[in-house]
Structure formats: C-alpha cells, structure tokens
Amino acid sequence: MFFGTKLANDEMGVFSDGLRVTKFRNVNSAGVPAPSIEGKFSSLDFPLFRLAEQYLIYSEAVTRGGSGGSAAQALTYVNNLRERAYGNASGNVASLSIPFFLDERARELYWEGFRRTDLIRYGKYTNASYVWPFKGGAKAGTGVSDTRNLFPIPSADLIANTNLIQNAGY
User: Fold this and answer.
1) 2 in helix, strand or coil?
2) Taking the CA of residue 87 as centre, how many other CA atoms within 13 Å lie in the half-sphere pointing to its CB?
3) What is the CA radius of gyration of the chain?
4) Nearest 5°: CA angle at 133, between 127 and 139?
C-alpha cells in the first residue's frame, strides 16, 4: 500500500521524499481510468460513509461507557474489521480500550481525513507528548499552541460578516 524506498521525509514539500500511499484509485470496476477533471481529480463527488467507520464508532462509544450497545458486539465488530484486513483471525483482539481506538482508526481510516479530528478528540493534536515529523515546523516534531485545535476564520468571511470574531491566537 506504500510506495517509495525512503522511510522518512526530509523535505515536506517534495512528494517523492519519503513513503507515499495510494488508497483509492480513480478507476471503474473494469480497471479502466474513470473520467476526471483535467486528468488530476477523482470523478467521484459524494460523501462516503463506510461500514468500518460505523463499527468503530459503535465500539468506541460502548467502550467509553455508552449504554446503547454491548461490549460483546463491539468486540465482534472490531474483530470483523481486523479479520477482513488480516485475511484471517490472527489479528483479532481479546479486549478493547480507549487508546486502542485512536490507533485502530489510524489503521482503518488512513487517508480519509479523520486523523486530525481524532487527535484533537484524544487530546494529542497540539501537545508535545505526541509528535510526528515536522509537527510544529520542526523536523523531529514539537508541541504547538492549543489554539491550533481550531482553524482561523478566513479574512473574507470576517469582512463579509462583521458579527464574526476571529478565533483566539490568529
């Protein structure tokens, strides 16, 4: 699923520096490239709700103490996903914990735009206890201000609506 031979990036702006990933391809069921805009963008333009995401939401909610489901069903859902991913039961887990879901969501939902929100939900997006390369502009990674949990409001929106107040720190 990854391609390239260099494990770490040295230059963030160079696509070929480090490993790259291709999760989705813009082809039809016969493998023929689907129509696209300028040959660059996917022709798909609709929201996608994956069953895997729903299984993880259910299981995390139950593990966090939600009363609308059962721990046994949560474990079954997670192991169903892992069996699909591993091709057998070798990756199955015997129990669930809150920290498990941050990692499992990273594995199952990579490249789908959930990671930032998940890191914020788990309190790991801005602090220095959880870093990755180039976090905070440092190659080794560093913590950043908690104001980064919110995006700035675009200046065009602030100008268009004087009732808006810029988020703190921007």
Assistant:
1) strand
2) 0
3) 20
4) 100
Per-residue pLDDT of the chain (170 residues; tens, 9 = 90+): 677 888 888 887 777 788 877 666 667 778 787 776 665 666 665 667 889 999 999 999 999 999 999 999 999 999 999 999 999 999 999 999 999 999 999 999 988 889 999 999 999 999 999 999 999 999 999 999 999 999 999 999 999 999 999 999 99
pTM: 0.75
Report the 3 state secondary structure along 16-82. CCCCEECCCCCECCCCCECCCECCCECCCCCCCCCHHHHHHHHHHHHHCCCCCCCHHHHHHHHHHHH
Token representation of residue 10: 């040295």
Number of neighbouring beta carbons within 10 Å of residue 115? 16
- Calpha distance 124→139 (Å, rounded): 18
| Phi, psi dihedrals of residue 27, rounded to the nearest 5° | -130, 155
In angstroms, rounded to a whole number, what is the distance separating the alpha carbons of residues 151 and 120? 12
Overall size of the chain counted in residues: 170
